[in-house]
Every structure is written in structure tokens, then in C-alpha cells.
């Protein structure tokens, strides 16, 4: 008859039980750490700047938990003939958008387009009088002079006083050369709110297709309740015009409404803080 060493068996069981408890505790600790360290969806959503003093540091402001889904469509580099087509599509889908205009496009030929844009309740923002990065960001004063020229032109010729601004290339543009906080602070002093974007159709990069623009917008917007979508309405934005109807259909089906950026808090890129 085989003799079983009960003391040895007991020690083995204790050892196994100790290992199980260790693994269980480790898993629980990992779970708790994950819950604490994982960034909330609001943190991933936006980096908003506080207004006020020049050069004031940006601060992250979490958007409140809300059920409503609002898409903020934005179009840069117009107006143009393509803007007219875009306005037709927006009207058909009962959607509002924000247009960041450039002075070089404010020709007499395009004047009726901008007037229509304003009349139909879309927002106008300043982008640049001259969109050349080299000239716009040439000196500390060049971009301010450019901004003033465009602002005064819109006031004098169109009777509007926009309060929205988007830096050419965005606030993370390398031409800013580390001066982003100074620039944003100065814009705040002038009463302006600055906006980057968190979704890009990539319609002005490389050789976009109608489908690539559609896919970029839909996949990007799905990450946010309040996406800011970057698109373009220059003379070479035909693919954007073709993609827009399906983009609006899909976003509407997913429960999004549409507003202008005048109704949203300021948003700048995270690395522009």
C-alpha cells in the first residue's frame, strides 16, 4: 500500500492557492489601473483654449456628456464655383456649415456666392487674405497685417464682422515656429475664436477620390459626438462636391445634426497647447 504524505500534499495545495490568489489580485489591479489611466472619450475629443491674456496656455476642457450629435462641417479656401454647388447640396439636406474664406477668392465674380452663403445662414470665418504660407508667416507682423486686410475687406464690402478664424495649415503648422500661443492669444484679444479640426476628408492632399473623401469623413466622424470636419471648396474641389451628398446622407442616418462653429467652443490641436 502506497503511503501518502499528507503534509506534503497540504503544502502543494497551499502553494497552488497562493498562486491563484496572486494572479487574481494582479488581474484586479490591472483592471483598476486600466480604468483609472485610460483617457476618457472627452479627453480624446478636444483641446480647448481659454480666452483672455496673450500667450495664455491652452487648457483641456472636457465636453459634457450629451446625447445630441452635432457635426460641424467646415470648408476652406473659397468661395468659388464649387462653393455654389456645395450650397445647393447643403440646402437639399438642410445642413449648415462654416466657410473659412481667402481674400484672393473674393472676386466680383464670386461675390454673389458669398452673399448667398451669408443669406442662407452659414457662417463665415477668416482664413487668409493671401494663402501662401511663406508670405503669411514670413514675419511676426505679416500674418497680422494679412488678417487685418481680410477682416476690413469683409466688413467694408460685405457688411459682416466674422469672429471665427482658422490658421492656414492649422495651429500646428510648422511655419508657426513655436509662436502658436502668442498668435492665439492675439486673436483672442481681437475677439476671435480659433478652430482647427478633428476629422479631415483629406480632399486637398495627394490624389483623393470620391470614395476616399467619403471614407475619411465617415470613419473619422464616428469617433466623436461633435466632429469638426475639414473639407475644401476651392476651384479644384470637384471630388469633394461629388462626395458630399453621400457624406450627408450617411451622417444624417447616424443621427447627426448640423450647426455652424459659432455655436461650438473653441478647438485647437492637442500639440498646439
Write structural notes for this entry.
- By secondary structure, the chain is of the alpha/beta class.
- It has two domains: 6-38; 44-272, Alpha-Beta Barrel (TIM Barrel), CATH 3.20.20.
- 43% of the residues lie in helices and 13% in strands.
- The chain contains nine helices and eight strands.
- The chain has helices spanning 6-37, 41-45, 81-92, 111-119, 133-136, 142-158, 180-189, 210-221, 238-253; strands at 69-78, 97-102, 123-128, 164-165, 193-194, 199-200, 228-232, 256-258.
- The strands form two sheets. Strands 1, 2, 3, 6, 7 and 8 form a six-stranded parallel β-sheet that branches. A two-stranded parallel sheet has the order 4-5.
- Strand 2 (97-102), helix 4 (111-119) and strand 3 form a beta-alpha-beta unit.
- Helix 3 (81-92) packs parallel to helix 9 and helix 8 runs parallel beside helix 9.
- The radius of gyration is 26 Å and the shape is globular.
- Residues 1-10 and 19-64 have low confidence and may be disordered.
Number of strands: 8
- By CATH, the superfamily of the largest domain comes out as Glycoside hydrolase/deacetylase
Mean pLDDT: 80
CATH architecture of the largest domain: Alpha-Beta Barrel
List the quaternary state of the chains: single chain
Strand content: 5-15%
Number of structural units classed as domains: 2
Rg over alpha carbons: 26 Å
Query: Helical element count?
Result: 9
Write the layout of secondary structure elements.
Elements: H1 6-37, H2 41-45, E1 69-78, H3 81-92, E2 97-102, H4 111-119, E3 123-128, H5 133-136, H6 142-158, E4 164-165, H7 180-189, E5 193-194, E6 199-200, H8 210-221, E7 228-232, H9 238-253, E8 256-258
Amino acid at each position: 500500500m502506497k503511503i501518502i504524505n499528507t503534509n506534503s500534499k497540504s503544502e502543494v495545495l497551499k502553494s497552488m492557492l497562493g498562486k491563484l490568489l496572486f494572479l487574481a489580485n494582479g488581474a484586479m489591479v490591472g483592471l483598476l489601473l486600466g480604468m483609472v489611466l485610460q483617457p476618457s472619450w472627452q479627453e480624446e475629443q478636444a483641446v480647448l483654449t481659454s480666452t483672455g491674456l496673450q500667450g495664455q496656455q491652452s487648457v483641456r476642457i472636457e465636453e459634457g456628456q450629451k446625447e445630441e450629435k452635432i457635426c460641424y462641417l467646415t470648408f476652406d479656401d473659397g468661395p468659388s464655383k464649387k462653393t455654389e454647388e456645395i450650397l445647393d447640396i447643403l440646402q437639399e439636406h438642410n445642413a449648415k456649415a462654416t466657410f473659412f474664406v481667402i481674400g484672393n477668392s473674393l472676386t466680383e465674380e464670386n461675390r454673389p456666392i458669398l452673399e448667398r452663403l451669408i443669406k442662407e445662414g452659414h457662417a463665415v470665418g477668416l482664413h487668409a487674405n493671401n494663402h501662401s504660407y511663406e508670405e503669411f508667416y514670413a514675419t511676426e507682423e505679416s500674418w497680422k497685417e494679412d488678417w487685418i486686410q481680410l477682416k476690413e475687406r469683409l466688413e467694408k464690402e460685405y457688411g459682416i464682422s466674422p469672429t471665427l478664424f482658422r490658421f492656414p495649415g492649422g495651429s500646428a503648422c510648422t511655419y508657426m515656429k513655436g509662436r502658436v500661443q502668442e498668435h492665439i492669444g492675439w486673436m483672442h484679444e481681437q475677439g476671435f475664436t480659433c478652430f482647427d479640426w478633428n476629422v479631415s476628408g483629406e480632399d486637398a492632399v495627394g490624389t483623393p477620390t470620391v470614395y476616399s473623401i467619403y471614407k475619411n469623413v465617415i470613419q473619422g466622424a464616428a469617433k466623436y459626438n461633435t466632429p469638426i470636419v475639414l473639407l475644401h471648396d476651392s476651384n479644384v474641389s470637384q471630388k469633394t462636391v461629388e462626395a458630399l451628398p453621400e457624406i450627408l446622407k450617411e451622417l444624417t442616418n447616424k443621427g447627426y445634426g448640423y450647426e455652424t462653429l459659432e455655436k461650438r467652443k473653441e478647438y485647437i490641436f492637442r500639440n498646439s497647447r
